[in-house]
Predict the structure.
Amino acid sequence: MLQHITRDSNHLFLCTTGEHLAIQISDSIVNEFFTMDLNERISENSSLTDVKLVIADLIDQYSIA
């Protein structure tokens, strides 16, 4: 279960029950719209796999824009 997501200029940090994942990502992609879309598409019940799939989809979407 997803507990929280934080970020710095180069990483998204995903913390779930028993798991932690850092995803390196371009700061130019992770803007306020990316963050809003991510928050809309995931919930506390999202698994880490679900979150990774959403992030991959958003990276594709925002890389093209």
Q: What stands out?
A: Helices lie at 32-41, 48-64. The CA atoms of residues 14 and 21 lie 5 Å apart. Residues 2-64 form one domain.
